[in-house]
Amino acid sequence: MWSGPRNISTAMMRSFENRPDCAVWDEPFYAAYLAETGIDHPMRAEVLAAGETDWRRVRDRVLGDAPGGKPVFYQKHMTHHMVPGIDRSWISRLSNAFLIRAPERVLASYARKRADVALADIGFVEQAELFDMLAETSGAAPPVIDADDVLANPRRVLGALCRAVGIEFREEMLSWPPGQRDSDGVWAAHWYGAVERSQGFQDPPPPPPPLDDTLKRIADEARPCYERLKAYRL
């Protein structure tokens, strides 16, 4: 699943992890992305210490079997982690789907957790690039789901997603126990407060407050990428 940050991506991971047939992996390339770019992120030192910084080793594990021999392997990938120094040619060997969200919602949430934000931090351009690459490779658009649609009707959208990727929908995907998970990345302490309190998908939030000029400019830059993928949503 390819998304940017602040996009119910962890709730989606919770949903799949609650399936007894599914293993999950939280942002496999985070440490490699930090090592490759040198960018300063919250808990940078902890992420680098806990994760694999060689993207080639991460790639090999991503393409391997699911932990515990589970038949379904849900990988929560961040599109902005796919920087130029990390090869993308292997991605077409996975079953890929895309989770999108309106840039205004993403930025309003992101800015509450990290003061400095640029277009490259939220992954919209990279998401569109990956979508185009996979559509060209396969000859068909990969599945796309919109976060607002998931929150409005999780049963319908998750059912459509499961059909699109060739697995059975399971009722366990609609709720989960609150709390932390061993599968959560070390960065959960900074980013996952709301999802740790959750027991299922929340109702769609109200529209975010108006963005300041800097964030609005970023949202305007991101919107064409969002609208292009939105046209294909399930």
From TrEMBL:
Family: Belongs to the class-IV pyridoxal-phosphate-dependent aminotransferase family.
Pfam families xrefs: Sulfotransfer_5
GO MF terms, alphabetically ordered: hydrolase activity
Record keywords, A-Z: Amino-acid biosynthesis, Branched-chain amino acid biosynthesis, Hydrolase
Gene Ontology biological-process entries: branched-chain amino acid biosynthetic process
UniProt name for this protein: HAD family hydrolase
Species: Kaustia mangrovi
Tagged with keyword Hydrolase: yes
Lineage, opening ranks: Bacteria, Pseudomonadati, Pseudomonadota, Alphaproteobacteria, Hyphomicrobiales
